[in-house]
């Protein structure tokens, strides 16, 4: 399996810049499928929509990987390997029962740094908790959730933990308290709220667009040119998601790839 170097290396930045230059100009039809999860992750990261307002580091939906690597078992196995190697993290999303986001670990840590930067100048005495979290939690806790006592135990390796420290992490969007068990937290991606809304609304808009057509289908080349009214994410992002989740399917025609609404 392909190994991903640390983000601090110049080679990684140069490679990602090259991916970005190439990835955002190609059609989805040219790179709909990949041979393995590592390649799919790298290309999708490069193709992540650049959004200025409420910017967030690139993330990939697990469903998008399912649309691009046909063997779902292979995807799950390779994601687990990359997670254990501390290359990436998985996050449970509230956009659907089985929705998960994948983010490279260095991007996740950069996202936390963005939160800290926004807090500079504000009178938040507990801001040091972000440093404790970055240093002691990601390497020790690889799962998508963590229990309160375990979290406090890991954070205490950095300093004396108070309830206010946990509140700061929740308010910053780093943690989300689970409704069914208040002693459990989901790890979450800070500042992702508008993107989550966009995922839900974009799904609805594309399904509605296709459903209004006579045969509930459209050429991919035409669909890709559409601009969504309800989502800051682009059509390509949503098509990968909808194909991987089974809401849409693809069929090859002499004139190109056709996107169809899947039958119930």
Show the helix and strand layout.
Layout: H1 10-23, H2 37-46, E1 60-61, H3 62-68, H4 72-84, E2 88-92, E3 100-104, H5 105-119, H6 129-136, E4 145-147, H7 148-155, H8 163-171, E5 175-177, E6 184-187, H9 193-211, E7 217-219, H10 220-223, H11 235-244, E8 248-253, E9 256-261
Antiparallel strand pairs: 1-3, 2-3, 4-6, 5-6, 7-9, 8-9
Can you describe what's shown?
By secondary structure, this protein is an alpha+beta fold. It is 44% helix and 14% strand. It has helices at 10-23, 37-46, 62-68, 72-84, 105-119, 129-136, 148-155, 163-171, 193-211, 220-223, 235-244, and strands at 60-61, 88-92, 100-104, 145-147, 175-177, 184-187, 217-219, 248-253, 256-261. It has a 3-stranded antiparallel β-sheet with strand order 1-3-2. A hairpin with a 7-residue loop joins strand 2 (88-92) and strand 3 (100-104). Helix 9 (193-211) crosses helix 11. The radius of gyration is 20 Å and the shape is elongated.
């Amino acid at each position: 399996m392909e190994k991903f170097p640390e983000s601090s290396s110049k080679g990684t930045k140069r490679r990602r810049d090259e991916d970005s230059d190439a990835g955002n100009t190609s059609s989805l039809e040219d790179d709909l499928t990949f041979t393995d999860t590592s390649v799919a992750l790298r290309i999708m990261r490069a193709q992540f929509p650049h959004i200025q307002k409420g910017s967030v580091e690139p993330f990939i939906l697990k469903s998008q990987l399912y649309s691009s690597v046909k063997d779902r078992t292979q995807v799950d196995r390779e994601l687990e390997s990359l997670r254990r190697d501390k290359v990436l993290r998985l996050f449970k999303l509230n956009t659907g029962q089985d929705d998960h986001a994948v983010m490279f670990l260095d991007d996740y840590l950069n996202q936390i740094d963005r939160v800290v930067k926004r807090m500079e100048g504000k009178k938040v005495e507990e801001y040091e908790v972000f440093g404790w979290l970055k240093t002691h939690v990601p390497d020790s806790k690889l799962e998508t959730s963590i229990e309160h006592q375990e979290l406090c135990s890991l954070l205490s390796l950095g300093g004396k933990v108070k309830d206010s420290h946990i509140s700061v992490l929740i308010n910053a969007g780093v943690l989300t308290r689970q409704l069914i068990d208040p002693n459990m937290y989901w790890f979450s991606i800070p500042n992702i709220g508008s993107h989550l809304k966009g995922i839900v609304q974009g799904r609805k808009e594309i399904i509605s667009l296709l459903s209004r057509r006579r045969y509930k289908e459209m050429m991919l080349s035409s669909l890709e040119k559409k601009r969504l009214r309800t989502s800051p994410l682009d059509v390509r992002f949503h098509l990968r998601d909808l194909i991987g989740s089974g809401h849409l399917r693809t069929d090859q025609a002499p004139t190109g790839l056709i996107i169809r609404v899947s039958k119930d």
